[in-house]
Design brief:
Blueprint: H1 7-13, E1 18-20, E2 23-25, E3 27-28, E4 43-44
Parallel strand pairs: 3-4
Antiparallel strand pairs: 1-2
């Protein structure tokens, strides 16, 4: 196990792939509206 420097936001902003149970996804949960400005790529979902 390793620490993901920059977190999921940096990972997605760099165009790296993210997967869920259905496969490749663009849906990213930015935790709250306060954190969402850090996510410039992907589709922000809050549920």
């Amino acid at each position: 196990m390793q620490n993901l420097y920059g977190g999921i936001f940096q990972w997605v902003n760099e165009g790296r792939p993210v997967y869920n149970q259905q496969g490749l996804t663009k849906n990213i949960h930015p935790y709250s509206a306060l954190w969402s400005p850090w996510l410039s790529q992907g589709t922000k979902v809050y549920e």
